[in-house]
Amino acid sequence: MKLRFMLPSIKIRIALLYSLIFSVILIVLNASVLYGLKYYLIYQSFADISNQAETILNKLSVVKGDIDFSNENLVFSIPENTYLKVIDKNGKVVYKSRETEDINIPYKSDINIPVKIEKDGMHLTYINEIYNRDGKIFYIQIIKNMESQYLFLKLLFVLMAFADAVGILISLIAGYFVTRQAIKPVDYMVKEVNDIDARKLNKRLKVYGNKDEFTRLAVTFNSMLDRLEDSFRRQNTFISDASHELRTPLSIIKGYVDILDRWGKYDKNVLQEGIEALKKEEAEMEKLIERLLLIARGDSRNLKLNKETFILNDILNEVIKETSMLNRDRNIVLNMDDEIDIFADKSLIKELLRILLDNAVKYTETDGKIEVICKREGQNTVIKVKDDGIGIPSDEIPYIFDRFYRVDKARTKETGGAGLGLSIAKIIVEAHKGSIIVDSKIHKGTEFTIIFPF
Ligand code: ADP
Q1: Domain of 365: which CATH number?
Q2: Where is the HAMP domain (predicted)?
């Protein structure tokens, strides 16, 4: 069985992180205060015993060959927690300020240097001095017990630890509530977003005045919803337009099948006419389905280009020849540079030229002139398809590349266009990183310019 490690909620994680940082700062701060204080107390004690040693050295005197301890000030100058020991040069203790158990600390080393030691669980500071006057040598040792200072430090430590624990607990609780408050908008967004589905794409998140990260998130989310809604709407329109377009050839096919069923069996002419018409409609439908598929692929960025290097002049000649064969009454002029080679998808470029030439033929009078120009301009290959036909009204120009868009619905029905040609042309040009521009004047003519980067 796989065990899954469950992370606590983000509120708890942020609160924990902050209180961890706070605890580390608090502990480091308190530890530095305690250590600082400890060393301050030790150095204070060093100063005390050094002063006391000095005073004692000044007050001691030798009387009749022996050291005189009768000086009363001597004993008074030694405080409670301090212990004075005088040792002669033979190591015999000649004076103890208190009749306590002897504390054995080397007395001949570290002369005049205060030292801190830990002995039998006691924290002590001591200083050794030499009394050398009138031919007499004595060792003087002052030991100070730092018990009360250490007790104070211990007490302080306990108090600080308690204060730290309370502080950390408060920071944890406060951190949790502050974070909960701060990320409240996320809970709201989760609730609202859960409510949005394909049927409720028009719903938007509320955006409040303050410009924080959550507002930016809500704005970004709303603009994503705008795009989604738009693409959903476009997709729906596309599907209903496509079904509508497919219905027309289907109903024609149905009509001919009915005619064939009734009379075709008996009348050869009707049979032949019916078959011809069905073939034509089948070809139209195939073309329409192919175009729909191409648009769908272009939309989902799934259009695969089989690029190769080929001579554009050959393709142009081929397409013009095809169009001229089908429209013998048209005058198509070709004006191009020699040998323009291009790296592109050959069949798509052919389709693009077919679309533009078909349109030029469809929207030009029989005696009209159609001109195809193909040139290399600097880094670009430029193709122009020009006609002197009916032109496009200027207010319609922005829409002609939209799918299923026809300028004059009634008239185009005769010419058979589904309003897909130019949207496919645009998909093909953009897939080749090129651009397509239109320049048209009503009753004067239209010029499509395609620019392919070299
Ligand atoms: P269709 O298949 O209906 O021709 P297109 O997408 O190819 O659709 O063109 C969209 C519309 O642009 C057409 O309905 C037509 O009115 C207009 N149009 C396209 N090319 C030309 C042209 N060369 N001259 C005049 N109008 C044109």
Answers
A1: 3.30.565.10
A2: 180-233
